[in-house]
Amino acid sequence: MLKTEPYVLNMGPQHPSTHGVFRMELLLDGETVVDMRPIMGYLHRGIEKLSEERSYTQCIPFTDRMDYLSSMTGNLSLCLAIEKLAGIEVSERAKYLRVIMAELQRIASHLFGVGTFIDDCGASGTPFLYMLREREKLIDLFEMASGARLTYSYIRPGGVMRDVPDEFWPAVRRFVAEMPRYIDEYEQLLTGNEILRARTIGVGILPREQAINASASGPVLRGSGVKWDLRKADPYCVYDRFDFDIPTGKQGDAFDRYFVRVQEMRQSVRILEQAIRDIPSGDPLPKVALFFHPPAGDAYGRSETPRGELGFYLVSDGSIAPYRFKIRSPSFINITALCDMVVGWRIADAVAITGSIDIVMGEVDR
Amino acid sequence: MTQSLSGEQVANRVREVLPNAVVKADGIDLYLRSEAMLDVCRFLKEAPDMEMDYLTSITGVDYMDYLEVVYHLTSIARNHSVVVKTKLYDRAAPELPSVISLWQGAEFQEREVYDFFGIIFTGHPDLRRILMWDGYANFPLRKDYLGLNYGQRPALVE
Amino acid sequence: MDWRDFYIYHLGKVNESVRSWLSAHAAGWTAYVVPAILGAILLLVFLLPSQLMVVWIERRLIARFQIRRGPNRVGPWGLLQSIVDAIKLLSKEAIMPRYADKWPYLAAPVVGFIPAILVYAVIPFGPDLAFADLNIGLLYLVAIGSYSVISVFMAGWASSNKYALISAMRSVAVLVSYEIPNVLALVGVILLAGSLSLTDIVRAQSSGSFTWFITVQPLAFLIFFITASAEVNRTPVDLIEAEQEIVAGHHTEYSGMKFGLFYVAEYTSILAACAVMSTLFFGGWHGIPWLERYIPPWIWFIAKIYIFFAVFIWTRATLPRLRIDQLMAFAWKFLIPLSLLNILVTAVEVLLIDNTTLAPAVWMTLLAVVNYALAALLIVAWSRAFRMPRRRSADIPEVRRLGALPAETPSY
Fold first, then answer.
1. Residue A347 in contact with residue C245, Cβ under 8 Å?
2. Does B57 touch chain A (CB under 8 A)?
3. Of A355, A357, A350, A270, nearest in space to A306 by CA
4. Chains A, C: CB contacts under 8 A, how many?
5. Within a domain: C62
6. Widest CA span in chain B
7. What is d(CA B148, CA C409) in angstroms, rounded to the nearest whole number?
8. 3-state SS of B64-108?
9. Which of A143, A216, B109, C145 has the highest CB neighbour count under 10 A?
10. Angle between helices C30-65 and C297-318 (to 10 degrees)
11. Cα–Cα distance measured from residue A3 to residue B145, given in angstroms and rounded to the nearest whole number
12. Cβ B1–A235 below 8 Å, yes or no?
C-alpha cells in the first residue's frame, strides 16, 4: 500500500459554487471529505450594531440586504417584531397584502434556490435560467408594488408602504394561473432525471432528530420529515385562514430538500389563489408615525421565510431606536449541521449538499 | 398557535427539581442563576411536560451593569415556547456553561454571542470568533465598544 | 454538366494531380513533400475557422436552450465574437503561479494541442481526402487520442493548485477507465468492415453489403458516444473541469493564450470525436443518395461533424453532472460488459454472414432488428441489475468531528 495522507482544500471564499463568500475548509482523503470546517464572516456588515443607532423604520432596509433573495419576508419578520414590541395594529388589507407578498417572495426565492442547487449538481445553467424566467415576472410584480426590483422595503411597521397599483392584480392573477404549469415543466426536467436522482437521493442525510437538535428550520427541517412551519405552527398575519399543506421529506437527503421546495411553491400558489380571492378593501397604510417610541421591554417576532425561521429579538429602552437588535437568521443556523452532512461524501457532494441547504451569505454574515 | 409559557409557570416546575436555580420569574420571563443554566436547560429539554427540543436562539444583550443572555426555547413536539434569561455581572470574564451538549444548534450561536459580547461558554468545543476575524480585539456589540461612553446613547434627531 | 467532374467535388483529386505533375516535372522528393504541405494547409484551413465557428455555435445554441440570446453584438449575429475573444486572450497578461513547475507548466498547453490536431491526419474527409490513409488508422486514432491525458496531468501537477491536482487525478482515472469501452466499442465496427483503415471503413458503409453502421451497431454507437464525451470533457461527464466543484480543473491557473490553447485543443478534440463518430457509424462522407451528386462528399462529412457537435451541446445544456465514483462505476459496470457483449454478438453475426446465402437486404434488416432489440434489452437489463452508487464512501476513516482539521489554518 502506498502511504497516503489527507490534505486541506480551502474551498472559497472565491469559488464558483459557494453562494457568495462562504468558505469551507475541507480535509480530503483523495476526493472524500474527512472533515469540514465552515468559515464565514466575509460579508459581515455589523447590521446588529448599525441598527442600534437607527430608528425602527430605518432598520427595515437592512433586512433587504440580509437575505437579498427574499427581501419581502425579511421586512415582514422585522415588522412583526416591531409591531409586537410597540403594540401596533395592522389593518386587514395590509395583512393580506403581506401574505401575498410573502408568498410571491417564497416562490421567487425557491426558484432561485432550486436553480442554483441544480447548478451545483453540475447542470450548465439551463434549469436555472428557466427558473429565472419566472422569477423575472415576480420581480416585475414587486417593482409594481414597491418600485424596487431587489430591495423592496415594502412592508412597514403597521402596514405596507403603499397600496398596490391597479395593474398589479391582473398581473398577479395571470402569474398564479400560469405558475403550476411552469412548476410541472421544472419537474419534468428535473424530478425524474436519473443523474439528478443519483446525485441527490441518499446524499447528505440530516436525520429527523438531528435536524431538530441542530435548530434547522425551513425546508431543511421539513426535508428531514418534521412537519414544522411557522405559518401553521404559529400563524401570523392571516395564514390561519388559508387552506394549505406542509410538504415534508422522507429521509432528509438533498433530494428531499429540493422536492420540499418544489412542493412549497405549489402550496404558495394555493395560498395566493385564496389570498387574492379574499383580500378585503381598505387602507393598508400604517397608522403610526415614522418615528415612534415603543415601551421599554423586549419582543421576539418571527416569520417563516423561504430559508426558515427568521426571528428578530428587539429590546427597547423607550427611545426611538432599538437598544438591541438581534437577528436569528435561518441560513446561519442551518449550516450548523453542514459538517455532519458533508463528512464522508465526495467534493462534488459537498457542493451539492451546501446548495441544497440554500444559504444566502448576506443573511449568514449579516 | 405556539403557546408562550409564562415565566412563573416554568419557574414553578423548575423549582421542584432545582430549588436554587430561579432568580426571578414574572409573567413573561424567567431569570436563572448563570451557573444553573445547563441543569435547567437539561430539565427543560427532558421533562416530559416541557420537551423543549428546539433551541430557537441564543442572544446576548449588554445592559451595561450586566450582560444578559436570552434563550428562546421551543418545543416542536408540544408547540409551546419559553424565554429563559440569565445575568452575568463580571464584564471582564463572563462565563456561562455551554448548552451544546443538549442542542447542537447552540454551536454557532454561542460562538456568535462570544464573538460579539465576549461571553465565554465553558464546555464549548470550538469557541472561536465566527463573524469577526481571528485576532480581533473587541467585542463589538457591547455598549462600550469604540470608546462610546458607558451608558451614553448616540444622539438621535427626531 | 456534372458536379462530379470538378475539383471542388473531389478535393482529393487536387492532391493526385499535383503529385503526378510533380513526379513528372520536378525532383522526386517534391512529389512527397509538396502534397503533404498542401494537405496540412488544407486541414488547418478547415480547423481554424471551425474553431471560431464552433465556439460561436455553441454559445449561440446553448443560449437558445437557455432562453437567452447569446453573443450578438460583434459582427452580424455576433459572428465575430470568437475572433474578438481570441484577440483578447492573445493580448492578456500571462500569469504564472510562483510555485508552478515552470517547464511542464509551459509545455502542457502545447502537449495538449498537438495530439488534438494529429488526430485529423487519418480522418477521411472524402474519398482520397485523408491526409494519411494509414491501414491502421483506427489504432493510430486511439493511440493519439489518449495522449491528451498527459497534457491534463502535466497542467494539473505543474500549476501547484489543489483544484488542478484533483482534476489531474480525475483525468487519469476517467481516461484510463473510459479508454477501454471506447476501444471495445470500435471493435464491432472493425469486425463488420474487416479493416482498420478509416477509408476502408467508410467504403464498407457505402453500398453492397452494408449501409451506415449505426443501423447494425446501435449499442456500440451509444457506448462510443458516452465514452467520447467523457474523453473530451462534455457534461454530464465533464469531471475534469467540473466548474462547480474544482473551479476550472487543470486550467485553473492558466491565463491568456495558454488557456486559449487548452480551449482550442478541447474543441479540436470534440470535433475529432464528432468526425470519428460520423466516420465509423454514419457513413463518413456518404450523403443521402439522391443528393450526393449535387453536394460534394467533404461537405457531407463536415455537416455531419457539426450535427454531432450540436448533439454534444444538447446534452450539455440538459443534464447535470455525474459524481466521480458514479462515473467510474458506470464505465466498469455498465459500459465494459455491454461493449464486450456487443463484440461477441457482432462476431457471431459476422461469422453467420460469411456463410449465408440470403440477399444482403434481407440479412441487413434482420441484423438491424436483432441488434436494436438486443441493445434495448441489454440496457434495460443492466440498469435493473445494477444501481448507481449512492452511499457514503465506505472506507472513510472514522474521524472525530471538529478535530481532524488542524486547529491553525495553514498558510496557502
1. yes
2. yes
3. A357
4. 130
5. no
6. 51
7. 34
8. CCCEEEEEEEEECCCCEEEEEEEEECCCCCCEEECCCCCCCCHHH
9. A216
10. 40
11. 51
12. yes
Is C384 near chain A, with CB under 8 Å? no
Q: How many domains does chain A have?
A: 1
Could you tell me if residue C399 is inside a domain?
no
Residues 61-80 of B with CB under 8 A from A: 61-62, 70, 72, 76, 79
List chains adjacent to chain C, taking adjacency as at least 3 C-beta pairs closer than 8 Å. Answer: A
In a domain, residue B151? The reply is: no
From the first residue on, what is the mean pLDDT of each consecutive set of 10 residues in chain A (366 residues)? 78 79 84 83 86 85 88 90 88 89 91 89 85 90 89 88 88 90 87 84 85 89 88 86 88 88 90 89 84 86 89 87 88 87 84 88 86
Confirm or reject contact between A4 and chain C (CB < 8 A).
no
Please name the residue that has the C-alpha cell 425524474: A192
User: What is the domain-level CATH number for residue B129?
Assistant: 3.30.460.80
Residue B30's identity, in one-letter code, is L
Four-point Cα dihedral B89, B90, B94, B97, nearest 10: -60
Give the closest-approach CA distance of B79 to chain A in angstroms: 7
Distances (CA, A) of B111 to A39, A217, C288: 12, 19, 71
Number of domains within chain B: 1
Out of B1, B56, B60, the one facing A309 most closely (by C-beta) is B56
CA distance B78 to chain A (A): 10
Question: pLDDT value at position A107?
Answer: 92
Report the alpha-carbon distance of residue A229 to residue A211 in Å, rounded. 14
Name the residue among A237, A243, A252, A218 with its Cα closest to residue A358: A218
For residue B109, the enclosing domain spans 3-145
Integer Cα distance of B107 and A332 in angstroms: 11
Q: What amino acid is encoded at C267 in this protein?
A: Y
Residue C10 maps to a domain: no
Q: How many CA atoms lie within 13 A of A133 on its CB side?
A: 17
Q: Could you tell me how many residues make up chain A?
A: 366
Q: Could you tell me the residue range of the domain that residue A117 belongs to?
A: 43-327
Cβ–Cβ below 8 Å for C321 and A130: no
CA C277/CA C310 separation, integer angstroms: 13
**C319 close contact with A: CB closer than 8 A:** yes
pTM, entire model: 0.85
Identify the chains in contact with A, defined as 3+ C-beta pairs within 8 A: B, C
Residues 147-166 of A with CB under 8 A from C: none
CA angle A162, A166, A167 (to 5 degrees): 115
Residue C410 has a pLDDT of 44
Interface test with B, best of A236, A324, A364 (most B CBs within 10 A): A324
Question: Residues C222-263: pLDDT tens digits?
Answer: 899 888 888 887 777 777 777 777 888 888 888 888 888 888
β pairing state of A297-305 and A308-316: antiparallel
CB-based contact, B157 to chain A, within 8 Å: no
Residue B150 in domain: no
Which residue in C337, C370, C375 sits closest to C222, CA to CA? C375
The amino acid present at B79, given as its one-letter code, is: N
Judge: C390–A9 Cβ closer than 8 Å, yes or no: no
* Locus of grid cell 403550476: A180
Give chain C's domain count: 1
Measured between beta carbons, the chain C residues lying within 8 angstroms of A122 are: 235-236, 238, 242, 244-245, 320-322
- Cβ–Cβ contacts within 10 Å for residue C354, how many? 7
Contact B131, B112 (CB under 8 A): yes
Distance CA A351, CA A330 (A): 19
Which residue carries 486541506 as its cell? A8
